[in-house]
Amino acid sequence: MGRQLIYIPIIHTEVDMGSMAGSLKKEYMQKYGIYKWHQHLKRINDLWISIEECLNQKHLCYRQVKIYQDGLPVCGNELQIVQDIAQRGGRNHQLLLKLISKGATLIGTEDAALLMKEYHLIKNTTMGKSVEKGTIRQNYMAERDIFIASRIHETLKDRETGILFLGMLHKIVEILPSDIVVEYLTIPSAIQKFN
After folding, report:
1. Is 97 a domain residue?
2. Domains held by the chain: number
3. Res 121: pLDDT
4. 8 Å CB contact between 104 and 66
5. Least CB-packed of 52, 68, 139, 178 within 10 Å?
6. Contacts 24+ apart (CB under 8 A), 38-44
């Protein structure tokens, strides 16, 4: 039967950004205004509603599902991290908890050291420090993608389905092993709002 991966391109919510949320929000509002900020938040919320509805329509056997999450380090405290973010209102992480309650297995997805390097790069950029952000960020993103692809390959077994929640800037599909069949979750009404 092989391995299947449902790829869900995501847009991070304010809660997902953690300590970076304030400066990123300020930067967005300076550029587009407060009305556009509130519109943006509503669109993201609508997107998460659509994602959940689309997953419900798949009628998956969750005992055979592994969940992979953008920004979730391999650390032994994965569930606690998800619970903490969900309690702060993170729609993505609230959905992860629902899937876990149905029997899905949460998998640490990212290398913590790479996440910290990228966090410091973004922090320096938002604080106005001069950084060659394009090339350096692409390098970190590429390294993260390689690690994530490796993690999926190591943990997703035959006859299992993975659900990958990953930001839209990642380029992981091209580097996954060829025996993993990738299906993009189609969320037409919500995605169109971001175009």
Report:
1. yes
2. 1
3. 73
4. yes
5. 178
6. 41/13, 41/14, 43/190, 43/193, 43/194, 44/11, 44/13, 44/91
Cβ(17)–Cβ(118) below 8 Å: no
Question: 3-10 and 105-107 as β-strands: parallel, antiparallel, unpaired?
Answer: unpaired
In a domain, 45, yes or no: no
Q: Is residue 90 part of a domain?
A: yes
Range from 16-20, 108-112, 143-147, 180-184 carrying the lowest mean pLDDT: 16-20
What is the mean predicted confidence (pLDDT) over 20-49?
Answer: 74
- Indicate the DSSP class of residue 110: B
**Which residue matches tokens 């999926």?**
152
Per-residue pLDDT tens digits for 112-127: 999 888 777 766 665 5
3 state DSSP class of 118: helix
The pTM assigned to this predicted structure is 0.84
Which range of residues forms the domain containing residue 170?
A: 3-12+61-185
Q: Give the separation between CA 82 and CA 11, rounded to whole angstroms.
A: 17
Q: Which residue's entry shows tokens 């449902």?
A: 6
Residue whose token pair is 């999450």: 69
Residues 6+ apart with CB under 8 A from 139: none
Q: In the chain, where do the E strands start and end?
A: 3-10, 65-69, 105-107, 161-167, 180-184
Name, in order, each residue with C-beta under 8 angstroms of 105's C-beta and a sequence gap of 6 or more.
Answer: 65, 66, 67
